[in-house]
Amino acid sequence: MSAPLLSIRDLDVVARSREGDRPLLEGISLDLARGEVLGLVGESGSGKSLLCRTIVGLMPSPALVRTGGKILLKDQDIAGADPASLRRLRGAEIGMIFQNPSSHLDPVMRIGDQIVEGIAFYRGLGRAAAREAALEIMAQVGFTDPPRQFSSYPHEFSGGMRQRAMIAIALGCDPELLIADEPTTALDVTIQAQILRLLMELRAKRGLSIILITHDLGVVAQTCDRIAVMRQGRVVEVGEKRALLRAPQAAYTRSLIASHPSMPVEDECGEVDDVSDHPVAATDVAGVAGTPAPAAAPATPGRPRPLVEIDDLRVCFPAGGGLFSRRRSFAAVDGVSLSILPGETVGVVGESGSGKSTLARAMLGLTPLTSGHVAFEGESLALKPRATRERLHRHAAMVFQDPFNALNPRFTIGETLAEVLRVQGKVPAARIADRVGELLDLVELDRSFATRRPRSLSGGQCQRAGIARALAVEPRLIVADECIAALDVTIQAQIVALFRRLVRSMELTLVFIAHDLAVVRHLCARVVVMHHGRVVEEGPTEAVFARPRQAYTANLLAAVPSIDPGQSLFGPDPRLTVSPVPGTSRQGTNP
Predict the structure, then answer these.
(1) CA triplet 31, 221, 142: central angle to 5 degrees?
(2) Is 553:544 a contact under the CB 8 Å cutoff?
(3) Which end of the chain, N or C, is surrounded by fewer C-beta atoms within 10 Å?
């Protein structure tokens, strides 16, 4: 058996403070073979991202220090390498796709130029050749119009499009080892399948080795050769994917599998052992994967007035044009009509760029309407904009897709929640501190998080803080825009169970935007499918999922990764004939 490309031995990392050292990574030992794909799974805060940042020498804080262990890249210990050596390694030999693209893309630099910069530096190409290579990579990762989008800035893209740009930057440097930290988190299932297909093709053609951090066990089952499970800074289990998913040894691994919202509902990995020792209660797991979605609001004599009414809505944005040319525009939302009843749970699904988030922002008065009407509790945004916005601000809230950019970095989480409570005026000043604690309890965050700022939280923890802020409004309507995209499956189960309880107990109306169709199926009574700014299919969730009328909907469902590694995500594509990894069986290599 050949030597591994990467070998980690007894790696320890601590956080240093006045109170002493707090261990974050303890005794991590892992190997990565040449051409192998290793899946790294575990809860938010388990140390997955920190481990990979330690490998490339990009610690998120000076207070985090490696105190022991080795990191061998091709038998060279890079753990103690100087900054100049690490800079030469990053990009050329080790590429990294970060979890939060908004924090790693230059906001004042065009996307195409950011891709070209790495290609020109590491490949030694001229400007014209680097531009052609960048356009080719942009097409590979799912950009629909690379020549036009080459000149766009990050803020002009959706979260999914920014993630594609981040992937293009990493691939442009042609590294030997690629560390992908939740690379498909913000992507819809069809683009996720394209990205995963691309990574597998790159592994087959170039012998690329990949460490894939993800909370989606379906992605791991379909792409990885081996799986390493992390919890609280330790590796609790490592194994070949089929063996580990079929017969997990650790109770924590069994709880991860039990929490996966697989489609169909029946567990495809067999009987799940008892997971009562895990924070995710068995009732919460059943609430996601074992029971039907809440029924739609019942029809009553006279039919209740819709809480939200949308009629022939169009939202257009400028799309170029110069001083002597006619200014063009494109319709992000193009003629959408929709009614949402009080207490209803409505899922909105579709590819990235289909108009889901624009529809959500227009619904809450956060984006100007080009034409059409949006009414909330009978008040029209077009006819009475000021009064309707005031009503929306008091009775509706949004959970945004990007939790880091949605929270004020200068405020602690407690200060953020307290500000909302003070502005709303629904809670007496003397009770604000207690209410902040209650909100943190609701989203499963320890009350000590009230004193922490967003930069010290993981992606999942930050998103839960965003949900707490939405709940602080005591809303009648919550619009959740990809609110669980960055969460691991156990926390997803808790958040989905929380939404189900809120809908039942508070008569909450929920519009749930997601690319995870399995979660939508179990949470929402009705589903709306969007494509190119239009609603292409709508109806009861079970009916749409069981018998989709449109080919586009059928393709979305077919692209959902199954937790069963025997079911191919990619279909009969001859390009995915993957050579075996040295030292592994063909069965364990070809996903």
Answers:
(1) 100
(2) yes
(3) N
